[in-house]
Write a structure and sequence with these properties.
NE0471 N-terminal domain-like, three-stranded antiparallel beta sheet, alpha+beta, about 120 residues
Length: about 120
């Protein structure tokens, strides 16, 4: 089954939320911080399982720009300079569908590492 295409993407700067609606009626509100710490870039994910780099200090990160990548993805530019993640529609849909679980996993990893969301 292929992921439906987005019908709308909005950046809410005050709340630091990317809102995305898909053609199947699903819509998600993704915090910029979640998007940043789960960037699909090699810098964050590594080049294989177990090579992920925990992102810390990203509570206040913003998105300054979103660039379309073909008809299948976007590439946001974050306020900390990160701009190498290409977020496919499928990846964004998955982040939205699993947002609560991913957020808790992030908080647990920070706690285990003795790290903080604070910049």
């Amino acid at each position: 089954m292929s992921t439906p295409a987005p019908t709308e993407i909005k950046l809410h700067q005050a709340s630091r939320i990317l809102e995305i609606a898909f053609a199947d009626g699903a819509s998600f509100k993704l915090p910029y911080e979640l998007l940043r710490v789960y960037s699909p870039s090699a810098e964050v994910r590594g080049h294989g399982p177990g090579q992920e780099t925990l992102q810390t200090g990203k509570r206040d990160v913003t998105i300054s720009e979103v660039e379309p990548v073909g008809h299948y993805a976007i590439r946001p530019t974050f306020s900390d300079g990160h701009d190498t993640g290409i977020y496919s529609w499928e990846y964004l849909y998955g982040l939205g569908a699993e947002r609560d679980e991913l957020w808790q996993r992030y908080l647990d990893r920070l706690a285990q590492a003795g790290a903080s969301r604070e910049p």
